[in-house]
Design a protein that fits this description.
The chain has about 250 residues and is an alpha+beta fold. It has four helices and ten strands. The strands form three sheets. It has a six-stranded mixed β-sheet, covered by helices on one side. The chain has a two-stranded antiparallel sheet with strand order 1-2.
């Protein structure tokens, strides 16, 4: 009987130990589950941060790429334009038009409106597809030439050129010496524009060419042309000087 009693106590003890171990096991399981949930939240947060960084990087790259391909609307030559052309409302559209071009190709001084080129004198050759700038032109209005006309004359020697290597687009003054005609002696003709310059043998001298020009085609006021012709016809002497190089 005593043996049965002891056996019962032993089994009760074992059962109590088993329940204790099961309780401890459940506690550990709960801890693991809680810990796993925390790790999951952290993982989600890390994923969101990484996704945000990636999205920002892509956005920045896209903006940089768009900046590289930015465009601008400017005036472009649609045909070759020879120096000496007088631009007017009637002919400007034959030479120039507003076109869209890459922004990084636009030079300083470019035009954005074709109408702004009206009354300009083309001082340098401009190739088709070239973007013209202000230095390619001379503003006829700024020269203040009333009733402009073209005329040509030559100098007997280079000493008559007081200053400067003269080329198309240069503004000059013409001083007159005529002892035989006091009315003409000492006159100075101002605001004269060189349309073309030539060497003594008739070769056109462009900007950058070596050599001294002694023959000129100029744009001058109608009144001053008459005075110049009178001087030349009477054997008077003229001397020219560069007064303002508008071209460069």
């Amino acid at each position: 009987m005593e043996e049965v009693k002891n056996k019962g106590k032993e089994e009760a003890k074992i059962e109590k130990q088993r329940k204790k171990e099961e309780k401890e096991a459940r506690k550990q399981e709960a801890k693991k589950a809680k810990s796993g949930k925390g790790v999951g939240i952290v993982a989600v947060l890390v994923s969101l941060v990484v996704a945000g960084v990636v999205a920002f990087t892509i956005f920045s790259l896209e903006r940089a790429m768009l900046a590289d391909y930015a465009t601008a609307n400017v005036v472009v030559a649609i045909a070759d334009v020879t120096a000496g052309v007088d631009l007017s409302e009637e002919n400007v559209a034959n030479y120039f038009a507003v076109q869209e071009v890459p922004a990084d190709m636009v030079p300083e001084g470019a035009y954005t409106d074709v109408n702004a080129m009206v009354d300009q004198f083309v001082a340098t050759d401009i190739k088709a597809k070239e973007i013209p700038v202000a230095s390619n032109f001379t503003d006829m209005a700024a020269l203040d030439i009333e009733n402009p006309v073209e005329t040509s004359f030559s100098l007997s020697d280079v000493s008559q050129v007081v200053a400067g290597t003269l080329r198309r687009g240069d503004e000059i003054s013409i001083s007159v010496t005529n002892p035989s005609n006091s009315a003409l002696n000492g006159i100075v003709l101002e605001h004269v524009l060189i349309k073309e310059a030539y060497s003594a043998d008739g070769v056109v001298l462009n900007v950058g060419d070596a050599g001294q020009a002694t023959m000129f085609t100029v744009i001058i006021s109608q009144e001053d042309e008459q005075t110049l012709n009178s001087v030349l016809a009477s054997g008077g002497t003229i001397r020219i000087a560069q007064t303002n190089n508008i071209q460069y």
